[in-house]
Amino acid sequence: MPMRTPKSSDIRNGNGIVMCSSGSDGNRSMTDPAVPPSRGNIVVVTNPASDRGRGRSTGRQALDYLIRRCPQYGLDVIDVTGATRRESLDNARRQIARADALVVVGGDGMVSLGVNAVADCDIPLGIVACGSGNDFARGLGLPVGHLETSIEAILASLRYRSAINLDLGHVESADDGGERVNVFFAGMLNCSIDAAINDRANHSALPFGGLRYLDAGIREALHVKEYGFHVDVTYDDGNVDDYELTTPLLAIANARFIGSGIEASPNSRLDDGMLEMLWAKWKPSAPQALHVLAQAYRGRHLGNPLIGYRRISAVTISASGQGAEPPLLMSDGEIIGRVPVRVDAHHKALKLLIPPAVLRQWRHASHDGRSGEW
């Protein structure tokens, strides 16, 4: 009996409804060890509200393509996209026990949703990077802006059990044991001017992600504020320190890129169990700020005497009462709350699907050669 090709009418949007049933799997080779021997599920989350509604069309295209291709891999597709981000995250968490993988469609905000659904639970995440930033995917060498290529890479990764285990940052409110804030981040925690830039870019009417961040960065650099922080930090060598910072910039990085291609933390590794803290040592003039921003696009700002940069294992950040009140914190482009917070690294808390060719490059660069273990 030939395999049935699922149609768009098979989709029933909602809270974890199976979207397609592929019928017989008689066309699959049961002797191919790379092909799963039994049916499984891919749980998918899209972002219909992103990019002024264009995310709905992108999500629809991704789902249609997955429905056509997944039956050939013995996989059903489950759409758990909710009416809000919170609902989508809750739906994804409820379906994780049934999932062979979680696939998110969008930019870094959707990566954030994905890592908060699967962190520390050993379910792999696949990224269809088609948002405005795509910084996490870019830093890993994954396809960016190519929907079908991204999906084929995910399916190949599942077929050949190709994945890497990566670190995540974790931030929780320090005043209530994580009741107010309890979030994982893949890329960066933004605490200052970087958060203001991100927020401005999110509300920009400009058409392209890179242009939005560049415009937002220039506008914020022309009106630099100094924020007051108290930090209690544990460095990578185990030494601890606490001090006050009055600074326009304080950020905690897990990955290299932010802001649609700004290489804010060029020395960050995703498998070393460490984070990086960046800060400005004084309030720059507008020309100095613009110069540092230009350097950051090429990852050359760490040599600027304005910028401080340290590898850390943990830090607690609170308001000092000096300077301006710190703005709302942003994690991977999403507002998460206010200080005080404690931030640390969760070593290899994320299992990420990655194509075999990219995996070979990752293994070659890895210190211990074990980043690709399933």
From TrEMBL:
<dbReference type="GO" id="GO:0016301">
    <property type="term" value="F:kinase activity"/>
</dbReference>
<feature type="region of interest" description="Disordered">
    <location>
        <begin position="21"/>
        <end position="57"/>
    </location>
</feature>
<comment type="similarity">
    <text>Belongs to the diacylglycerol/lipid kinase family.</text>
</comment>
<dbReference type="Pfam" id="PF19279">
    <property type="entry name" value="YegS_C"/>
</dbReference>
<dbReference type="InterPro" id="IPR017438">
    <property type="entry name" value="ATP-NAD_kinase_N"/>
</dbReference>
<dbReference type="InterPro" id="IPR001206">
    <property type="entry name" value="Diacylglycerol_kinase_cat_dom"/>
</dbReference>
<dbReference type="InterPro" id="IPR045540">
    <property type="entry name" value="YegS/DAGK_C"/>
</dbReference>
<keyword id="KW-0443">Lipid metabolism</keyword>
<keyword id="KW-0418">Kinase</keyword>
<dbReference type="InterPro" id="IPR016064">
    <property type="entry name" value="NAD/diacylglycerol_kinase_sf"/>
</dbReference>
<dbReference type="GO" id="GO:0005524">
    <property type="term" value="F:ATP binding"/>
</dbReference>
<dbReference type="GO" id="GO:0008654">
    <property type="term" value="P:phospholipid biosynthetic process"/>
</dbReference>
<feature type="compositionally biased region" description="Polar residues">
    <location>
        <begin position="21"/>
        <end position="30"/>
    </location>
</feature>
<dbReference type="InterPro" id="IPR050187">
    <property type="entry name" value="Lipid_Phosphate_FormReg"/>
</dbReference>
<keyword id="KW-0808">Transferase</keyword>
<keyword id="KW-0594">Phospholipid biosynthesis</keyword>
<keyword id="KW-0067">ATP-binding</keyword>
<protein>
    <submittedName>
        <fullName>Diacylglycerol kinase</fullName>
    </submittedName>
</protein>
<keyword id="KW-0444">Lipid biosynthesis</keyword>
<keyword id="KW-1208">Phospholipid metabolism</keyword>
<feature type="domain" description="DAGKc">
    <location>
        <begin position="37"/>
        <end position="175"/>
    </location>
</feature>
<keyword id="KW-0547">Nucleotide-binding</keyword>
<dbReference type="Pfam" id="PF00781">
    <property type="entry name" value="DAGK_cat"/>
</dbReference>
